[in-house]
Amino acid sequence: MTRLSVNLNKVALLRNSRALGIPNVVQAATLALHAGACGITVHPRPDERHIRPHDVFALAEVVRSFANVEYNIEGNPFENVLDYARKVRPHQCTLVPDDPGQFTSDHGWDLSPGARDGPRLKPVIAEMQALGIRVSLFMDAEPSSMALAAATGADCVELYTEPYAKAFATPEQTSVVERFAAAAKAARQAGLLVNAGHDLNRANLAPLLVAARPVAEVSIGHALIADALEFGLSATVHEYLAVIERASEARVSGR
Known about the structure:
By secondary structure, the protein is an alpha/beta fold. It has helices spanning 9-15, 25-34, 53-64, 81-88, 117-130, 146-151, 162-167, 173-189, 205-211, 222-231, 233-253, and strands at residues 3-7, 39-42, 70-75, 92-95, 134-139, 156-160, 193-197, 217-220.
């Protein structure tokens, strides 16, 4: 079944608005993992607007205290993520082509012939894998790009799902879903695991999981933390896991 990794950036963002240390990022991670989340994701940015260096190390210790859960560090390997990978050795690094001041992730890597991303990524990926880290590339849902992602040596792709989220419940949903399904299929044919993330929520998650099946992991932060303000973090994790379970049952039954 698809793994749920809880992104804690927004918990850290709220904490950083005051000097009180609340909400506590470590406590949030502990609650999410006790509730059944399969992992924790962080995206530490150079400006430390949310996750800060001490969080990266503290959360690594939290994850190590649980059995069969994973730690995923996201970010640009040409800024700070490679240094964290060397020191923390998370289970997975998701490499994202963010500029230092970028508001949020909004595009995948350009691996087209002649672009500089592919040649730059290959040695970074090789180094991370030598450290025992699984490497995922943040990619737009373009089927033709999946073989190029595999050629870098990456283990996975994370499909950038904001275009799907924007198209959800609109006339464009069917065509966009078909493109994501095709990209996922192309990735698996290239030998890659398929992850997904960005703007996924309780409403749009299941249709994507059914269409793009099998999806190894979804990383969800903004919507999940927003839901937690209403329902509580543990109950919200339970609800997202229930959505994933229903999607898995629909896939098995062929619905």
